[in-house]
């Protein structure tokens, strides 16, 4: 059975950063997120879209290939994720279970569906600007409303995809023209 207990609290001895602007300065700059047990990189700040404080987790659109999505769908009959269907996430380095992807949820968790939810108390952050490592539980990543950030990122992905299809259309045209001109030059 999956250990949902550790989703519930952020009960470390770490002091939260008291200065909000220090926190802001850190979380808005490049940070990588690592396994607290084996140092494997799980994600970086580009893939983070916020924090779900109610389940003590970071919300990510993207994780590294070192986060394994376990294939069996599971169902939780009670507790924090009562009536949810989910897949567990596992660290490829040390095999610890470190998060979930929720698929089917009650309404109050619907904003978190299909996103990677990584337990904060299982990870630490490497801060590029200062070269420091700190426990993720000492930082607050809830900098923008999650819904906004998610739709922003999804829009960005869509735009990038449409640019890519434009580029490939142009390349197809170019190739077609080249083919035509080479036919013309050899005739
Ligand atoms: Zn690990």
CATH architecture of the largest domain: Beta Complex
| Radius of gyration over all CA atoms, rounded | 21 Å
Gross geometry: globular
Count the DSSP helices: 2
Q: Give the low-pLDDT segments.
A: none
Termini separation comes to: 73 Å
Broad structural category: alpha+beta
Helix content: 25-40%
What ligands does this structure carry? zinc ion
Q: How does the major sheet shape up?
A: 7 strands, antiparallel
The CATH class of the largest domain turns out to be Mainly Beta
CATH topology of the largest domain: Metal Binding Protein, Guanine Nucleotide Exchange Factor, Chain A
The helix/strand order is HEEEEEEEEEEEH
- Rounded average pLDDT: 83
Number of strands: 11
Q: How does this model look, in words?
A:
With 187 residues, the chain is an alpha+beta fold. It folds into two domains: 5-143, Peptide methionine sulfoxide reductase (Metal Binding Protein, Guanine Nucleotide Exchange Factor, Chain A, Beta Complex), CATH 2.170.150.20; 145-187. It is built from two helices and eleven strands. It has helices at 20-27, 146-186, and strands at residues 31-35, 41-44, 48-52, 57-60, 67-69, 74-76, 84-91, 97-104, 116-119, 123-127, 132-135. The strands form two sheets. Strands 3, 4, 5, 6, 7, 8 and 9 form a seven-stranded antiparallel beta sheet that branches. A hairpin with a 4-residue loop joins strand 10 (123-127) and strand 11. The longest helix has 41 residues, at 146-186. The chain starts with 19 loop residues before the first helix and ends with a helix. The model has no long low-confidence stretch (mean pLDDT 83). It binds zinc ion. The site of zinc ion has 8 residues, from loops.
């Amino acid at each position: 059975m999956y250990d949902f207990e550790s989703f519930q609290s952020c009960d470390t001895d770490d002091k939260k950063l008291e200065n909000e602007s220090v926190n802001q300065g850190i979380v808005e700059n490049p940070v990588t997120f690592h396994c607290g047990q084996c140092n494997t990189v799980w994600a970086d700040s580009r893939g983070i879209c916020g924090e779900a404080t109610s389940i003590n987790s970071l919300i990510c659109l993207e994780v590294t290939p070192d986060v394994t999505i376990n294939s069996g769908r599971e169902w939780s009959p009670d507790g924090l994720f009562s009536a949810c269907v989910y897949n567990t996430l596992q660290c490829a380095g040390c095999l610890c279970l470190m998060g979930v992807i929720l698929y089917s949820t009650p309404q109050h968790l619907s904003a978190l569906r299909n996103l990677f939810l990584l337990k904060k108390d299982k990870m630490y952050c490497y801060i590029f600007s200062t070269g420091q490592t700190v426990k993720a539980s000492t930082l607050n990543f809830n900098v923008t409303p999650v819904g906004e950030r998610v739709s922003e990122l999804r829009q960005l992905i869509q735009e990038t995809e449409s640019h890519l299809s434009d580029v490939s259309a142009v390349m197809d045209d170019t190739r077609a023209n080249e083919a035509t001109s080479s036919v013309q030059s050899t005739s």
